[in-house]
Write a structure and sequence with these properties.
With 167 residues, this protein is an alpha+beta fold. It has 5 helices and 7 strands.
């Protein structure tokens, strides 16, 4: 009887933990591998050093791709928040209100916005940063070194859609 109660307690604990854990951990470098980054940036990229770790406030995945022929770059970040930590929407709102002029992006995740390289945004010219919220996940995509901001934003949105499809 005691063993049965103990087993029932373990099962309830495991179910509770799974309800409050972050979504399935996502590796952004597996979604956007080196060959894909080269297509996005239009040139060969250096070997990346992806990082995937569990932190006290969630799971983090990041990967940076840097061009070998120019200053082009693609930065990928994903935080999957755990229960009780700063949620993705709050994080988005903090970034949006940090100064600068965020452009709202419709139809991407639960909420999305972009900063460009305008002086009031504190970014260098030819850089865009796209931020996307979906549930407890917060995605950041940066593209640098592309002169055409509209094309850079379209590429960043395509990357975001690939990551969102895995959530």
């Amino acid at each position: 009887m005691r063993a049965g109660l103990c087993l029932a307690g373990v099962i309830v604990s495991l179910l509770t933990i799974s309800l409050f854990a972050a979504e399935k951990p996502i590796d952004v470098s597996a979604i956007i591998p080196k060959a894909e980054a080269e297509k996005i940036l239009g040139e060969p990229v250096r070997k990346p050093s992806p990082l995937n770790v569990n932190g006290k406030d969630g799971y983090y995945s990041k990967c940076n791709y840097y061009g070998t022929k120019s200053v082009r770059s693609l930065l990928l970040r994903l935080r999957q928040a755990t229960e009780g930590s700063v949620d993705a929407l709050t994080e988005f709102d903090q970034i949006a209100s940090s100064g600068g002029k965020m452009k709202v992006i419709e139809g991407l995740g639960d909420k999305a916005g972009m900063f460009n390289g305008a002086p009031e945004n504190g970014l260098p010219p030819n850089v865009i940063m796209l931020y996307v919220v979906k549930g407890r996940s917060f995605i950041t995509i940066g593209i640098g070194g592309m002169a055409d901001e509209v094309a850079a934003l379209e590429k960043a949105k395509q990357v975001a859609e690939k990551i969102l499809a895995q959530l």
